[in-house]
Amino acid sequence: MKANSITLALGVTCLLGSASLFAAEQPRSGGSLTFGVETEPVPFNPQLNGQSKAEVTLRNVWESLLARRTDGSFVPWLAENYQVSPDGKEYRFSLRRDVTFSNGEKLDANAVAENFRHVQDAKYCAGSSICALGARIASVATPDDHTVTITLKQGYSPFLSFAAKLQILAPASWNSPQLKAGGKEIAGTGPFIIESYEKGQQVTLVRNQHYNWAPATAKHQGPAYLERVTYRFLPESSVRTGALLSGQLDAIEGISGNDAGEFKDNPDFTYQHALNTGTPYSLFLNVEYGPTQDVKVRQALLQGLDIAPLLKSVYRGERTRAWGITSPVDPLYNNDLEGQYGNNPAAANTLLDEAGWQTRDSDGFRTKDGQRLSIEVIQAQATVRDQRDVLLQAVQAQARQRLGVDIKLRYVDSGTYTDVRNTGHFGSIANSNTETDGIDIENHYRPVKAGGPINYSRVNSPQINGWLDQAAATLDINQRRKFYSQLQQYALPQQALAIPLYEPEDQIATASYVHGAGFRSFKQMPENAYDIWLSDH
Q: How far apart are CA 75 and CA 79, in angstroms?
């Protein structure tokens, strides 16, 4: 029997088997769920964890001041309201008075303020993107027990996004020897509490019976429906798919294009997918090292590659071609570049000839002064997901065939990745980022020392810096979109600082007796298990 399809806001599509379509049952409390996930949180401290894919697990335990609706607007969560000064320098949060951490400590102004003071501490947040944002804070004050005021050194419009989503740790956390590693000793306010953690295997959470402060974006109030949820860490998509089909799991996320059909047309399962916000998965080209220092080489790659057929081949049509510097579901997106570059090998080869790469070696690769035109693409092993390794191999083959360019793929561990980033000795780094409100753009296009922690093109452009400053100085979204659009035109077709490949998305498949699984209303990543409930099966 063919599944039914419902298209929701912001490109979320849900395919439901007949067993679960418009289920008449009411949500019920109880039961345990086993969820197969792609990413193990490393570390288990949500503030220091930079893995967007790990938030499906982390958001069960730790929560934030505000939540966001589909349109990006903010709603109360741990804070009952907020104010931003007209100059964008002062942020005032009024806290709920009924919230407790799972270790029994009260959520009050001092508890929240201490979290923001720690993100100013380079010893605490070194290596994390929160350091760059914490460095913008001038002071943190507590006018009373339920009010926190954060004053910035200068106006910075994306700061609300950061402040709203920072996951709040209990006061006792700061004295724990496990602070940076995170885990059971680092209490949160969430609907679940960590019961056990088996490194490399799974984490089991139990219901927080006292929980009663879900945001308005949730589907119910009070404690979670499930008594217990176990997240099993299964990095291979085929393993997760097989485990769900065989009944070993109740739900999975991260489904390959090859496997989507197993659930889309199967009445025993539901299938949902949604585009993420943030920066597309892109090849960022290093302007300071190797052949990609030459803008003509970078432009040749941007113009000569034809990404669409590669996506169709690798993902069976289940992924979306990327064109710009941020996602189509981001309010700051500008579609001017869609279809405006790429698949022009004649122009690309002319550019490479003009750059002096005119001769070829016995393997057909371009050479100059006896050196092969080789570009090393670095990918952190921890972020190899969603068949990205297969996609990069396809890009590698096309670059050789169309352009005579030797793309070398190198997958490295986290320590080597940090070393390579610091030295700058690479041709390209493949990366995506789910931050919103322009933080993702700043992360990739500001100089590292000026707040761009993942500026993999290593660009330091007065024009780009000016547009970023202008966008950060205004709260007017139309003005911000204009500045980012100018940046996009300069960064991509003119300077070819990156080659956008595809828009990251998330997928969820569940057995038909699982209800309430879905995506966050704005970032569109898999939500925690708070609203999930089970019917008879």
A: 9
